[in-house]
Specification:
By secondary structure, the protein is mainly alpha-helical. The chain contains 3 helices and no strands. It has a domain of about 70 residues. The longest helix is centred in the first third of the chain and has 31 residues.
């Protein structure tokens, strides 16, 4: 603290990228777990387990969605956008053809 004001710590682009990868990995893992639950439901699960499986799938999907739309993820992406302009795209690098991230209003 200086002059009674809390000091804001700046994170490097590398630190923010590590956090972004961790957040996206968690979302991916939750979606993969949901896929396994769906596969098991379709192939091996007894009919009596439908209620419990429905709750499990709803929870896993809900957790993945909450993380995907979290304001913290949006702020992180906003913070990293300025670094994207400095990346050069070579022939061997993948290029995104999707829509750019757009902040909801």
């Amino acid at each position: 603290m200086t002059d009674g004001k809390p000091r804001r710590t700046r994170r490097s682009a590398e630190q923010m990228l590590v956090e972004l990868k961790q957040r996206l990995r968690e979302i991916s893992d939750l979606n993969a777990a949901g896929s396994v639950l769906e596969w098991d439901q379709a192939t091996y699960m007894p009919q009596a387990g439908a209620g419990a499986r429905g709750r499990q799938l709803a929870k896993v999907c809900s957790l993945a969605h909450e993380r995907a739309v979290a304001p913290a993820l949006g702020r992180l992406l906003d913070s990293l956008v300025r670094y994207g302009a400095n990346l050069s795209r070579g022939k061997n690098q993948s290029q995104s053809h999707g829509k750019p991230y757009k902040k909801a209003s």
